[in-house]
Design goal:
Strand content: 5-15%
Distance between the termini: 34 Å
Low-confidence stretches: none
Radius of gyration: 20 Å
Order of helices and strands: HEHEHEHEHHHEHHHEEEHH
Largest sheet: 5 strands, parallel
Shape: globular
Mean pLDDT: 91
Structural class: alpha/beta
Strand order of the largest sheet: 1-2-3-4-5
Number of strands: 8
Amino acid sequence: MARTLERAAALDVDFVKTYVRASGEVMARAARAAHRLGVPSGSHLCAVGRAAGQDLTTHLQATQRLPHGHATTPAGRLYQDVVEQYADGAFALVMTPFSAQCLLGADPALADDPRVRVLMPPWDAAVVGERARTPPTRAQRAALATEMGHYRRLTAAGAWAALGTDAPLVPPGLSLHLGLRALHQHGFTAARALHCATTVPARLFGVDRDLGTVEPGKIADLTVVDGDPFTDFGCLVHTVLVLRDGVVHRREDLVRSRETTARPAPRCGTWLDVAEYLQQGSCCHPSD
């Protein structure tokens, strides 16, 4: 544990997370190490993480190893004591709405977007294509409504909730847009949903002096969309360019550069398959 935290300090990491088998003592040590670096710490555990001095949970409900670590019931209900843990704003949440993936089936044209076909890893493009072929079922829509209802309840109580994705378990980039759509379709105003992807994460990660809003004196990293999300929220997916570190990255340029340099994908279907495929070519992989 000490060596891991020393390495994190040497690498000047942005976030320190403990996973589900870490004890309370380990979580507390990780939180103290993160705070010495001036960065937040978190885990999957709400009350336990807060008691250990952590700053947030990286999901509302995810993999758990402790009976008292579950934030929702098997039926999907949200415990009142969980709401109270977040309500004072001293402990935050990164939302990871996996249920929003069903919205691909409501907008199948997304699977034909060149950013999906060309820029995404082939296994993610395949997942997007498969999900886009099936409209959301009644059960999927109900699960999505339940999860979004939890986020409405938490934020109405005063919780700070940033929007995340948990990639690579979901396709990168596009999943953030699906999460935004889900929030907006289930009661979040356009501004409130956008805050979950801009001002709130900037504050949670301690960079709100430089990022999160467009103001004089702040870093001018910008995403430019073709449209007005306050009248057509779906236009957010139409990003025409990104300005980062003073460099303009246009959508068509990124797609064109990838089209001319792409290599054949390995003969495997998922990101885990690819990891195993790459491991076989490493110097440390035992030969058969």
